[in-house]
Every structure is written in C-alpha cells, then in structure tokens.
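Q: My labmate handed me this sequence with no annotations at all. I'd like to see what the chain might look like in three dimensions before we decide whether it's worth expressing. Could you predict it?
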Amino acid sequence: MAALAAARRQRISRELWRDAALALGATVTDAAPGRFEIRRGSSITTVVGQTTLLNTPESAALASDKPAAYERLTAAGLPVPEHLAFKAGEISAARSFLARGPVPCVVKPATGSGGDGVTGHIRSASELRRAVLAASRYERRLLIERQLAGDVIRLLVLDGEVI
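A: Here is what I predict for the chain of 163 residues:
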C-alpha cells in the first residue's frame, strides 16, 4: 500500500509541476525518483514532491498541517471551509459535524499532502466510518470539512506575486 501511495504521489506531483512549467514556458525533467528539475532559459530549480528551494521548511510544515494552516488563513481574514479536527478513535464529534449538515463532507489526515487517505462525498455515518478508517492509515489526527463545489486551483507565489 505504501509503495502504491508513494508512486501515486510522485505521478501527481510530476503532472502538477509539468503543467505549471508549461504555463511558464519551462521544462521539467526527472532528476531522480520524486525529484524534478524545472528549467527556463538559464534558470533552474529543484523540486521534491511539493517542496521547492523557494519554500522554507517552516512554510512547508505549516502547509502540511491543515488545522494550523486554516487558523492562519482565518486570522488573515481569508475564508476556509467549516471544519473539525478530531482523533480517529473519537468519531462522535465528526458524526455530529456530519449530521449538522450541509453535506457532503471530506475526511482527510490532518497533516500531509498529495491526497493520501482523502475521501470526499461523505453523506452518511457509514461512509464516515469508512473514510475515517482510510484516513487513519496515514495519521490518527483527522479533519472533517464541508465539501465545497468548484475547481481545485494551486497557486505558486514568488516575492508576493502569483506566477
């Protein structure tokens, strides 16, 4: 299971960086498993998963910790989905969150990236139990949030500018 998840993360990461590079007129090459080089003209950067040389370890850790990131975004006045952090063995609070509606909801590990353990379109208590089981394979601390309709958009910001 872990090898499949790692291969999926690597494939998704490569596709995301390839799309971003194409939009900028750059190229992506595989430097090693999970490590890519993005080149445009004489400029080059190395990417490992979701992390570039432009990201500090602190910013990558914050982005990986979804509840902490949501707190920072809320403090900055930005909207975040209604959510609840809970432990895998303490599902009653998540069940109450789901029952309050509106549904559907998403359950995911509270930290990490790449979609491992994420289950969407949760509408019932039985779907919630299955989603908690799937997410808890990656971490015991979980997050349930309202699923919002719309596109998934990733932004790359450099020196305060979206590139």
